[in-house]
Amino acid sequence: MADGFKILAAKELSVSTTANTSDSFVYRVSRPSGQRHGTRIRSQAIISSIVVCHHGSGQNPTVTLRVVQDGFTTPVAFDDSQYVIYLDTLTTNQTKVYSLGIGLTADNAIYASSSLVDVNIHIFGTEAI
Questions:
Q1: I need a labelling partner for 81 at 20 to 30 A (CA). Which of 10, 19, 21, 100 fits?
Q2: What does the pLDDT look like over 56-67, one tens digit per residue?
Q3: Is residue 1 part of a domain?
Q4: Sign of CA dihedral 73, 79, 83, 89
């Protein structure tokens, strides 16, 4: 059963020098455990919005966001088909809200990166684990 809308993730993005290998882990849909494991085959999450905020005064960073189907393997296999947002530019002190309505299941994950420091990401939605 869903717990209601909440903050699913919040973090400062790490700086990426290469878009294909340096994305940082932001959020993963957990697998069900305990009593819930016997009654639920797959956990689910609905991502209602993703908020990205540049709180720096320097140059304009670019942000990359990807959704990875099996996002908790080691190492994560990144490819170009996973991009949801690619090199979107933020200006100084700008906040962008992406209302994507993404549905995810267990082990699906969101990774993101920024070309500069001082960029935060918040993911809002609901989980049914």
A1: 10
A2: 887 899 999 999
A3: no
A4: positive
